[in-house]
Amino acid sequence: MALKLKTKPGEHEQNNFENIFVVQNDPKSPIGEAFRTLRTNIKFSSLDQTIKTLLITSPAPEAGKSSVSINLALTIAQDKHKVILIDADLRKPTIHKIFQQDNQIGLTNILVEDKKTEEVIRKMSDVDPNFYFIPSGPIPPNPSELLGSNKMRGLLSELAEQADFVIFDSPPVIAVTDALVLATYVDGVILVLDFGEVTREAAIQAKQLLEKVKARILGAVLNKVDMEKEGKYYPYYYYYYYGDEKKKRK
Predict the structure, then answer these.
(1) pLDDT tens-digit profile of 98-110?
(2) What is the pLDDT of residue 240?
(3) How large is the C-alpha radius of gyration of the chain?
(4) Strand 131-134 to 217-223 pairing
(5) Spans in the chain with pLDDT lower than 50
(6) Among 31, 76, 124, 131, which residue's CB has the most CB atoms within a 10 Å radius?
(7) Domain 2-249 in CATH 3.40.50.300
(8) Dihedrals φ, ψ of 28, to 5°?
(9) Residue 23: exposure state from Cβ atoms within 10 A (0-12, 13-18, ≥19)
(10) Beta strands in 58-214 (DSSP E)
(11) Which are the contacts of 105, defined by CB distance < 8 A and separation ≥ 6?
């Protein structure tokens, strides 16, 4: 499945709730409806396996994956599900800036210093009572090794028991191996493609890299679409892809 969203390029750089939290501030907008549709399709993307853990990534930087991660998590929280959003970009973390939170303690402290989850996790009541957030924490010298550790696997299992959904915002899939490592743990991966900027070759390469590690790609989000401009030629619409994952893996 894939869908078109309209967001502003570079909006993840702004500490502006008005621009970032679209589904909260403008829930009846086409973007709000798009995220609710994405939420529904994630729920029904498989009849055999419940989707609880998700990875959001992109082929290259500046695709708006952090904005997509936040709005998807918020949409799920609004549906009365407990959701934990984790900034797993241990190289260039962004989400704590958007939330206007400090990043002194977070995921890396759990993995390196054996901090307890309850010491690190933050309940974002101002956003939604069902919304929880774990920042990246201090940037380590070995992100891929930490994300591929047994501690990370154990943490994922722990969080999956505590929440209805766990969402990881990760680095771009082509630039570094971090996203590929995490993709092997989670129930599904969503690829964010920035309209007019991502090349066909980059999108294909990202998909192939994920397939090589046997990641389960649920679909793609086409982001940064200027609907005022595009709407002159194309109506606002979604693309969906439904496929038998078992057949695709054979």
Answers:
(1) 998 999 999 999 9
(2) 36
(3) 17
(4) unpaired
(5) 1-17, 230-250
(6) 76
(7) yes
(8) -90, 0
(9) buried
(10) 83-87, 122-123, 131-134, 165-169, 188-194
(11) 115, 119, 120, 135, 137
Residue 137, SS3 per DSSP? coil
Domain ranges of the chain: 2-249
pLDDT in tens, 144-190: 999 999 999 999 999 999 999 999 999 999 989 999 999 999 999 99
CB 81 within 8 A of CB 115: no
Give the strand order in the sheet containing 2-4.
122-123, 131-134, 83-87, 165-169, 53-57, 188-194, 217-223, 2-4, 238-239
Q: Do you know the residue count of the chain? A: 250
Give the side-chain half-sphere CA count within 13 A for 26: 12
Is 152 strand, coil or helix? Answer: helix
With beta carbons less than 8 A apart as the criterion, state whether 108 and 139 touch: yes
Q: Nearest 5°: phi and psi at 218?
A: -80, -30
Burial-class residue 227 by CB neighbours within 10 Å (0-12, 13-18, 19+): middle
Chain centroid to CA 235: how far?
Answer: 26
Phi, psi torsion values for 158, nearest 5 degrees: -65, -45
From CA 215, how far away is CA 62, in angstroms rounded?
22
Kindly tell me the burial class for residue 14, based on how many C-beta atoms sit within 10 Å of its own C-beta (0-12, 13-18, 19 or more): middle
Structural contact between residues 202 and 60, judged by C-beta atoms closer than 8 angstroms: yes
